[in-house]
Amino acid sequence: MVGLITGAGTGIGQAMALALAKHGATIILVGRRREPLIQTASLITQAGGQAWPIVCDLSDRQAVAALAAQIKQRYVQLDLLIHNAALLTGGAFDQLPESAILATLNTNLLHPIWLTRQLLPKTVLIVGSTVSRVAMPGTSLYSLSKAALEAWGLALTAETSIKVVRAYPPATKTAITAAMAQQTGQRFPLAESSRVGEQIIQRYLAGETEIVLSASDRLLFRLQRYAPKLVQALLKRYRQQLIKLWGAKID
Ligand SMILES: NC(=O)c1ccc[n+]([C@@H]2O[C@H](COP(=O)([O-])OP(=O)(O)OC[C@H]3O[C@@H](n4cnc5c(N)ncnc54)[C@H](OP(=O)(O)O)[C@@H]3O)[C@@H](O)[C@H]2O)c1
To answer: Boundaries of each Ketoreductase domain copy (predicted)?
Structure first.
């Protein structure tokens, strides 16, 4: 099996890369920074797997086109393409800088779609988020990018033979949540990224197409479906805190 994972140098992406490599896959590791990609690649090779790190900024259309061309020279078709890299651009909607809006839409939505069109893999795995299904203050842009990618994925699987898997990680200990905790002083329970990545891959290999890992997300999704007004009233009550939490800078 040959798979490509974006954002594979750190967090959940790195954990999924290591978990897939354990199953004998060759993994193409994509990210902006070379160092974390090399580190992930060396963990994979130490464990007997194969990795190909490629530096690429997904917000840059030309870089994404070059990435696709490089891969097509070596492989006819990928078995798996995991859209994991994402920018969390949160905070008050009216204060989001235009450049951040464009970078987020390019990185989280447009260029993953563009990359998929270039590569036409057998399976696409989308790393989603709770906020694509539950409208949360402070997440308008992030939630748009995640929800739109999921909607695109569902339409893609309805139209083509490409299988689409959606995975919803719980709140997980990574750079994204570390920044939130540091800037707001709030502490919340966080899952280990190694376990989250491992579970997503296990459930993908078991054939699941909608992977919701935490019981609290399952409950929230059900509440959102059957009692949306209650959920919205509760979230609105904590609007200011949530805007501050989601607006934590991660770069
Ligand atoms: N952590 C959570 O609680 C949580 C919960 C639900 C969903 N998620 C989702 O899980 C996914 C992984 O996030 P994470 O929590 O593991 O955080 P993370 O460790 O910060 O991972 C994000 C990865 O994306 C890469 N990346 C960011 N912008 C990029 C760009 N323009 N081009 C290429 N690569 C880029 C980063 O690498 P470089 O900086 O080197 O480019 C990094 O490796 C994201 O889609 C996130 O929305 C996370």
So the answer is: 1-171
Q: How many residues does the chain have?
A: 251
- Reading the block at residue 8, the tokens are 């594979």
Mutate to test the pocket of ligand 1, among 10, 107, 109, 220 (most ligand atoms within 8 A of CB): 10
Residue 16 falls inside a structural domain:
yes
* Strand-pair category, 50-55 with 80-83: unpaired
Asked if the structure places residue 107 within a domain, the reply is: yes
- The whole domain housing 217 covers 2-246
Does residue 106 line the site of ligand 1, with CB under 6 A? no
At 250 the pLDDT is 60
**Into how many domains does the chain fold?**
1
Indicate whether 180 pLDDT > 90.
no
Query: What DSSP state is assigned to residue 131?
Result: G
Residue-wise pLDDT tens digits, 43-90: 999 988 999 999 999 999 999 999 999 999 999 999 999 999 999 999
Residue 111 falls within a domain, yes or no?
yes
Judge whether 127 lies within some domain.
Answer: yes
CA 31 / ligand 1 centre spacing (Å): 9
Does position 251 have pLDDT exceeding 70, yes or no? no
Nearest to 2 by CA among 111, 82, 114: 82
How is residue 95 written in tokens? 């204060």
